[in-house]
Amino acid sequence: MNKPLRCGSKSQTLTIDAPVRVEVKPESTVVKEGDAVEVQCSSDSNPPAHGYQWYNITGTLLSEERIYKLHNVSRHTKALYCAAINTEGHKNSTPAKISVEYAPEIKEGPACSVRAAGVACLCVVDSEPPPEITWLLQRGSDASAGTERHGSITLGTLRSTQRLTELTCQASNSRGNTSAVFTPPQSGRPSSAVRKTKMY
């Protein structure tokens, strides 16, 4: 006859140490330049996180709080990262993307040049969201226009087969508008531009 097998043991609690899992809220946000934005970091780990750190995209330490409020957001604020720390180590979050919107700015630089086929003008605009570029010409002038987008920079080009004495580049988006009056070069003189900006 088989005898039952008995095993004696003490009751034990098994603790599984798990790495940090980090979440940032909101994952992305749109804000006007100069405003404030608040982001918060949460984590799931065993043992629990005992510390948090916020970094910008260049790796600069910004805060050691779970909730971080960034004042006076600039267009150079692209993303923020949170690191949650426990006794097993630390883990970085995915980036909290911040889309900063601002009114168009017409950049300094050469405006117009005289060519054999006429006049070529370039209007360089920095803005988010992308601007609508409009050229105002002398009455009766004939010209062709186009735009190219490179990151936050929009290049507005205009070509005319006629000699223009003055023209205006207007750029506008939901955050404001700006304009520049271009004076194409005459008799070898360099071109000039006068800028006016309005923000909403």
Could you explain the architecture of this structure?
By secondary structure, this protein is mostly beta strands. The chain folds into two domains: 18-101, Immunoglobulin-like (Sandwich); 107-199, Immunoglobulin-like (Sandwich). Helices cover 0% and strands 59% of the residues. It is rod-shaped, with a radius of gyration of 29 Å. The chain starts with 17 loop residues before the first strand and ends with a strand. Mean pLDDT is 82; it is low at 11-16. Residues 174-200 are annotated as: Disordered. Residues 19-55, 95-183 form the Ig-like domain. This is Ig-like domain-containing protein. InterPro entries: Ig-like_dom, Ig-like_dom_sf, Ig-like_fold.
What is the fold's blueprint, element by element?
Elements: E1 18-25, E2 28-32, E3 37-46, E4 51-56, E5 61-63, E6 67-70, E7 79-86, E8 89-92, E9 96-106, E10 112-115, E11 118-128, E12 132-136, E13 143-150, E14 153-160, E15 167-173, E16 176-183, E17 192-199
Parallel strand pairs: 2-9
Antiparallel strand pairs: 1-3, 3-6, 4-5, 4-7, 7-8, 7-9, 9-11, 10-11, 11-14, 12-15, 13-14, 15-16, 16-17
